[in-house]
Structure formats: C-alpha cells, structure tokens
C-alpha cells in the first residue's frame, strides 16, 4: 500500500477562520479522501501557527496571556474543521511540546554544522509580515506596499541561516523536478525569484522585542523567527511515523509560495540532510461579490454560519465546483444559489427522489433485477464507463471542478434516460414486455444513481452516505469495485423519500 502525506498550511491565529481557510481545508480534504478511495494509506495534517509578534500584540491589547488567546482561536479552527467534515488525521499547534522539541533539535543541528551565525542587522522591518525588507521590496515611488503595513528601520544583532549558499542547489532541484509546484506555471515564478541573489535568512528575534516564540537552544535570549518555526510543523507531525516523509503535497495559498514554502523550506531541509517535500500545491484566492474579502465592509463569508444555513455539503460542492485549482475565483450568493438549485436540488436531488418514488410505486419499494437491457440501457452504461474513466483521471490531476461537471453530466443523462423510458407509462401497461422493461428501467436508474454517487463521496461525504442509505446500499471495501456497473442493488429495500437539498430560506 502506498503512503500519501498531505498537509494544509497552518493558519495564523491572529484572526478567526474565513472562506479562504475553509476552501483550503475542503480542497485538501477532497484530495485526501480521493487518495484513500484509491487505496493509499493517507496521513492528512492541518493545524495552527501560534507564535509571533502579531499574536503577542493582540493578546496584550486584550489583556490576556498569549496562550489563552491562542487556545481560543485554535478552537475556532478545530470547530470549522469539524463542521466542514474535514477528515484530518492530526491537528498540530506550534505551541505544543512535541513541535518545540523538533524545532529546537533542528536549530541546534544547523548551528552545530555551522549553518547559523550571529551578525548585526540594520534595515527595514515589517511588523505585519514579521519579516525584514530590502530596497527591492519598495514600490517604484519609494513607498512600501500596503501588504507590509507599518515599516520601521531597526538595528539589532540576530542569528542568520546560510540560505544563500544553497541557491544553486535549489535552482537545479527545481529544474530536475518540473512538477515540484502545481500549477506548473507557478514554478516559473519561483525560478524568477531565484534569478537574483538570495540573502541569508534572519531566523531569530531578540526577546526584548518578542517573547512569544520558541527560544533558540544555543542562545535563550532570542526566539525563533516565526517562519522557521512554522514550516517545521510538517516534519514534526510525522517524525515518529515511518514511511510518510517526504510529504506528497503541501497545499498552500499562492501568497506564501515564495519565498517561505518554495525557497526557505526546501533549503532548510537540505541543510539538515532531510529530503524535501515532493510537491507544493498553490491555490488561488477567493473574492466576494467581485471584491476583496473584508470583514470591516461586510464583504465576508463566515464559513460555519454559511454551512449551517445552506448545508455543509452544498458549501463543499460549491467551493470545489466553482474554483479551478490554482486559479482565483469569486464567491457570490447568487452563483451559489444558482448551482444549489440547478445542480444539487433539481438534478441530483430530483434523480434520488424519482428513483425512490417509482421504486416504491411500481415495485413495492424493492429494487428489481434488470431483465432485458435495450439500446437506451446500453447507451447509459457506455456513458458511465466514459464518465468513470474521465473523472478518476481528472481527480488524479486535481481537476476536480471538471470532474464534477462530468459527473453531473452523467446525472443529467440518467434523468434523460428516465424521461425516455417513462416508467410511469410502463406501469400502466399490463403487457409482460412492458412490465419487464419497467423492472429493467427501475434497476437501471437505481444503479446509475449508485454509480454517480460513488464519484461524489470525496466532495460530499455526508450526502453520499445518505444516498447509499436510502438505496439500502453498503459500499464495497474497495472503491474501484464500486465503479463497475452491475446488480449490487437488486433486492434492496429503498426509503420512501429523501430531502437532501431543501429549498434554502434566504433573507435576501
């Protein structure tokens, strides 16, 4: 059995979870669930980044200890994962002893190897981004980009990691591993960043300026730079789990690809003699109603509240259906409701209820055996085989939005098959041939529903389970076996009805 280790970025606890956090968790969950279906032994990690100046400042402003503040916000992220049906195997916090130990061991190793040195630094510092800046970071007019917030000039002694000496190695590594970053065009952005000489990385902050961090093992008067601390979480979680490192994918937002994940992280690992991750998956950003997300202006989606109002799987479906992995996308209630009504309620929901209704009406609620498949049945089976192969391949390439489009095209084709066979007409006929065709049509529509549902389990696990339940179906242990057209449902007693996607009650 292959192992598959996948992580999200760990979310900074300076604020509550928003739609971008929800999307990253759902996307990673869909990948993890799909790999489990494909037979891999999966380890899925998420968590929170709890150190740094912003946390220290926010906690002081509220008059509470930093750990108490972290505990509160960390729980919000845990609650979001639970609400959104995220199947993570571990939830890591950078304030946990297990993580602090790995960070300090790694720092001590690099220091002993001569990879870390002390020097005086004079330059510009962004508190918001918790990083030192260079002249090249300025706007053409000499101002600092808004992303950096307030920038101050400081002079202080710090410890530096010899990042620069590994630049040539990293360039060569990227050229040899063209799929290191997905989508591939973002790998070119990394190489463009590396076209200019790297500076060594300042990996400490003096305690008189920042107390909330992991102390350096070789100088307790300094704490670890938040990125050097945070990135190590991916390794911490599996250091005692043989077979999972290196990570198959780190799923991150495009804003933290360069330099943290694509430059700092592989070089840190290389210097420590640890194999770098196999790939980074950099996803895009969500706007809301065509504008940047902003809580202050009300242009904001609170994921838990939204899921409670419209359904967890409806939100999961929209996030995966609407965004092409790697690209940006827009979230609007109007577009959400359009997909909810047309695709979930009217297409999938309608197929489920037609299947249940007609099986109860014409077969006493028991799915009959197919007796004499005709051209219409063979056409639907052919459509299934094409859909199945396409969807599996698309999912392997992270093209989940297209895979869902293909799956729902098959659901549409199944509803079209029902219109063509018109079981309600066949049920009125006493002719033996019509009764045989009725039984065949009922078996065919139930089997097509079962198969389509098998393709939805990674994206809509709750809904998929409900559909299996109303069909009286217990899925096979091997998912691939579930994708073969057959007679698994013959003799199953079905439920009378199922309301999977009730008409949403909106206030707008």
TrEMBL record:
The Methionyl/Leucyl tRNA synthetase domain, residue ranges: 5-136, 149-356
GO molecular function: ATP binding; methionine-tRNA ligase activity
Record carries keyword Hydrolase: no
Source domain of life: Bacteria
Class of the enzyme per the UniProt entry, highest EC level: ligase
Keywords associated with the record: Aminoacyl-tRNA synthetase, ATP-binding, Ligase, Nucleotide-binding, Protein biosynthesis
SUPFAM superfamilies: Anticodon-binding domain of a subclass of class I aminoacyl-tRNA synthetases, Nucleotidylyl transferase
Alphabetical GO biological process terms: methionyl-tRNA aminoacylation
Gene3D superfamilies attached to this UniProt entry: 2.170.220.10, HUPs, Isoleucyl-tRNA Synthetase, Domain 1
CDD domains, per database record: Anticodon_Ia_Met, MetRS_core
EC number: 6.1.1.10
Role of this protein: Is required not only for elongation of protein synthesis but also for the initiation of all mRNA translation through initiator tRNA(fMet) aminoacylation.
The family this protein is said to belong to: Belongs to the class-I aminoacyl-tRNA synthetase family.
Record PANTHER family: METHIONINE--TRNA LIGASE, MITOCHONDRIAL (PTHR43326:SF1), METHIONYL-TRNA SYNTHETASE (PTHR43326)
Name this polypeptide is given: Methionine--tRNA ligase
């Amino acid at each position: 059995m292959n192992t598959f280790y996948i992580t999200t970025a760990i979310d900074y606890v300076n604020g509550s979870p928003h739609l971008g956090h929800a999307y990253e968790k759902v996307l990673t969950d869909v990948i993890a669930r799909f790999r489990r279906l494909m037979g891999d032994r999966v380890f899925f990690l998420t968590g929170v980044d709890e150190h740094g100046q912003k946390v220290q400042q926010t906690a002081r402003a509220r008059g509470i200890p930093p750990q108490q503040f972290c505990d509160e916000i960390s729980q919000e992220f845990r609650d979001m994962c639970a609400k959104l049906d995220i199947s993570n195997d571990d939830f890591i916090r950078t304030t946990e002893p297990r993580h602090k130990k790995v960070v300090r061991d790694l720092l001590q190793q690099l220091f002993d190897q001569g990879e870390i040195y002390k020097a005086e630094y004079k330059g510009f510092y962004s508190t918001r981004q918790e990083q030192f800046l260079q002249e090249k970071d300025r706007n053409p007019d000499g101002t600092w980009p808004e992303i950096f917030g307030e920038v101050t000039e400081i002079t202080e002694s710090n410890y530096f990691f010899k990042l620069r000496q590994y630049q040539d190695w990293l360039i060569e590594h990227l050229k040899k591993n063209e799929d290191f970053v997905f989508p591939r065009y973002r790998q070119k952005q990394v190489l463009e960043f590396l076209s200019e000489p790297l500076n060594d990385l300042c990996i400490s902050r003096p305690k008189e300026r920042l107390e909330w961090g992991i102390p350096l093992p070789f100088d307790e008067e300094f704490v670890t730079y938040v990125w050097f601390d945070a990135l190590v979480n991916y390794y911490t979680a599996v250091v005692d789990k043989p077979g999972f490192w290196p990570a198959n994918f780190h799923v991150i937002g495009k804003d933290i690809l360069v330099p943290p994940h694509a430059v700092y992280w592989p070089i840190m690992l290389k210097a420590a003699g640890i194999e770098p991750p196999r790939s980074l998956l950099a996803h895009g950003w969500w706007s809301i109603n065509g504008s940047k997300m902003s809580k202050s202006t009300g242009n904001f989606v609170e994921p838990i509240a939204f899921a409670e109002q419209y359904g967890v799987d409806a939100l999961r479906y929209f996030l995966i259906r609407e965004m092409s992995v790697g690209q940006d996308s827009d979230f609007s209630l109007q577009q959400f409701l359009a997909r909810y009504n047309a695709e979930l309620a009217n297409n999938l929901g309608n197929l489920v209820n037609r299947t249940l209704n007609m099986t109860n009406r014409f077969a006493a609620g028991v799915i009959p055996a197919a007796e004499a498949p005709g051209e219409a049945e063979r056409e639907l089976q052919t459509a299934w085989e094409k859909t199945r192969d396409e969807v599996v391949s698309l999912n392997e390439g992270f093209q989940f939005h297209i895979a869902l489009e293909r799956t729902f095209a098959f659901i549409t084709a199944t509803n079209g098959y029902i219109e063509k066979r018109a079981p309600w007409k066949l049920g009125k006929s006493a002719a033996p041939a019509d009764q045989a065709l009725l039984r065949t049509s009922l078996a065919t529509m139930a089997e097509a529903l079962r198969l389509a549902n098998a393709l939805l389990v990674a994206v809509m696990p709750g809904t998929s389970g409900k559909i299996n339940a109303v069909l009286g179906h217990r899925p096979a242990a091997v998912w691939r076996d579930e994708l073969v057209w057959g007679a698994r449902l013959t003799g199953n007693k079905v439920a009378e009805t199922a309301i999977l996607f009730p008409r949403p009650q909106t206030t707008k």
